[in-house]
Amino acid sequence: MKKIVYLIIAFAFINCNSKKQSTENYSIKTFDWRGANIYFLVTDRFNNGDKSNDLNFDRTKETGVLRGFEGGDIKGVTQKIKEGYFTDLGINAIWMTPIVEQIHGATDEGTGNTYGFHGYWAKDWSKIDPNYGTKEDLKELVDVAHSKGIRVLLDAVINHTGPVTDKDSVWPESWVRTEPQCKYSNYENTITCTLVKNLPDIRTDSNENVELPPQLVAKWKAEGRYEQELKELDEFFKRTGYPRAPRFYIIKWLTDYITEFGIDGYRCDTVKHTEEYVWSEFKIECDYAFEQYKKNNPDKVLDNSDFYLVGEVYNYGISGGKLFNFGDKKVNYFDDMFTSQINFEFKWNAKQQKVKDLFTKYDSILHNQLKGYSVLNYMTSHDDDSPFDKNRAKPYETGTLLLLSPGASQVYYGDEIARDLTIEGSVGDATLRSFMNWDSLSNNETQMLLSHWQKLGQFRANHMAVGAGKNTIITDENGLVLSRTFKDDKIVAGINLPAGNKKLNVSSVFKNGESVFDFYSKQEYEVINGFVTVNSKFPIVLLEKN
Residue 306 domain-assigned? Predict the structure, then answer.
């Protein structure tokens, strides 16, 4: 793929020489999950808004590098929402790693002691871990985010509990299996098994009535909420008619976050390791809970968007359309399950294909095999040890390709300011989960990079056409020029363009005499004889009707 060269990076700083870039020039006209710009953060590693909650449950053992709690919390995220950090980035949804109460003890699987800082080791789905904050903190976060037009996604884990430790005993056999370990060679030995050693697998295939785990009963009684939790469970099972099987308890606990706080969606963990009917059941209850919330809180409804469910089917790629291939079986996780799937293929496509071919391929699949659905593209994530740019050698190109590609985009925290992904002494995916590098914002070079991501992100947020629209290639000579159209929304974008005057054919989108605005260089132009001549030092042009 032709490398995107930024000869004039320094000039990007001219229009954003302060920490906070003005967003007065744009407003979000409409929203569609297919064109969303989602910011994904590890809750414990983003921003510490409340130092008083940094230590709980005597989690004091010395840990491996980046394998303990470091203080990030819900209040820290809210603080950055209030400061306008996400708005300036053009973010219209924030996805946080799970915030439910984690195991109290630590594990050591050869990488040093590890605590459940990442959120995927649940001990109690019905309670927020105090390291992350309180119910009041979450309520404030959702309310503040919604006041800015930003949606909130939590992370749903139905597949497993946390590991067994000296402080966290294994749940009853009626709830979990502890063997065999998954082999990942076919459908059955990817689902009816434990993901890894010492990660008890919820018996999501069971329809047998089971009692609450004695660990939870004792915990809830000690916390003084046993009777209330039991009452709510009785009401849930009476309303739904579901058997009191393990998965339905968890579905109840997870959907409570919708009815109580008004979250807008879930990213669902380890989807292919759980029977697909579980996700259909989860969708039914999520949709019901969302409707109940909107009915009970009409003044807090952002729009008529459906509840968002995006699945993590590990190694799913857009080339498969709606199907994921287990080898011996293909499964459709879209219909009656998920709005979108995380697209593990995108970063490889971005490396291996010309930009024109990348955009054309995605446009074709999204408007045919995946019509009505979408994919969530990413360049970096919390558990993919082969990011697009691990050494942060091309952070501008990363932003350009991600934010201008068809489909929804996932910005991993720190992508926009080149957070280090190669932390000395860290092992495995821990190196991808360092604390957010806020201090780097005092550096002019980081500010210039942030400005680039802000311009692209705001343009994407303002125009659903960028991610959800129909892509048309106008020319790929001397750079790539394209248009995107979605309902009444139309834009023209150019990348890899030469410095100085750039003459763009916009006749298929804008009329002669119309005034257009280049969002990247912040300049106005007139359409003359079907063309706009942009005079800027930038290789990017983002044209919208003025």
Answer: yes
Q: Is the pLDDT assigned to residue 135 strictly greater than 70? A: yes
CATH number at residue 487: 2.60.40.1180
Establish if 184 belongs to a structural domain. no
Quick one: 448 and 485 in the same domain?
no
Per the rule left: phi > 0, alpha: psi between -120 and 50, beta: everything else, 459 is alpha
C-alpha 251/C-alpha 156 separation (Å) is 9
Average pLDDT on 415-423 reads 98
Helix (H) or strand (E) holding 228: helix 226-240
| Pair 375, 394 in one domain | yes
Is 7 a residue whose pLDDT tops 60? no
Whole-angstrom Cα Rg for the chain: 24
What would the two tokens of residue 117 be? 């800082």
- Check whether residue 342 and residue 417 sit in a common domain: yes
Q: What pLDDT does residue 29 have? A: 56
Do 347 and 474 lie in one domain? The reply is: no
**pLDDT tens-digit profile of 165-185?**
999 999 999 999 999 999 999
Q: Once rounded to an integer, what is the mean pLDDT over residues 101-112?
A: 93
- Do 355 and 458 sit in the same domain of this protein? yes
- The CATH number assigned to the domain holding 344 equals 3.20.20.80
What ranges in 66-126 are assigned the alpha helix state H?
Answer: 74-83, 85-88
459 in Cβ contact with 450 (< 8 Å): no
Tell the burial category of 260 from Cβ atoms under 10 Å away from its Cβ (0-12, 13-18, 19+).
middle
Classify residue 182 by its DSSP letter.
P
Q: Tell whether 286 is covered by a domain.
A: yes
Task: Calculate mean pLDDT across residues 141-151.
Answer: 97
DSSP structural state of residue 35 = G
Rounded distance, CA 363 to CA 360, Å? Answer: 5
> Would you say 250 and 266 are in contact if contact means Cβ atoms under 8 Å apart?
no
Report pLDDT digits (tens) over 353-388: 999 999 999 999 999 999 999 999 999 999 999 999
pLDDT at 113 over 70: yes
Could you tell me if 484 and 397 lie in one domain?
A: no
Q: How confident is the model at residue 46 (pLDDT cuts 50, 70, 90)?
A: very high
Same domain, 413 and 450: yes
CA 287/CA 481 separation, integer angstroms? 40
Q: Using an 8 Å Cβ cutoff, are 63 and 107 in contact?
A: no
d(C-alpha 369, C-alpha 465), whole Å:
19
Question: 10 Å Cβ neighbour count for 44?
Answer: 28
Mean pLDDT for the chain overall: 94
pLDDT at residue 5, rounded to an integer: 38
Whether 106 shows a pLDDT value over 60: the answer reads yes
Give the domain extent around 59. 32-166+264-468
End-of-domain residue from the set 404, 436, 468:
468
Place of tokens 């306008």: 84
Same domain, 442 and 423: yes
Find the DSSP H helices in 463-545. 464-468
DSSP bridge pairs for 177? 201
Please count the structural domains in the chain: 2
DSSP character at residue 165: B
- Residue ending a domain, among 468, 499, 518, is 468
Residue 141: partners with Cβ closer than 8 Å, 6 or more residues away = 74, 75, 77, 78, 81, 152
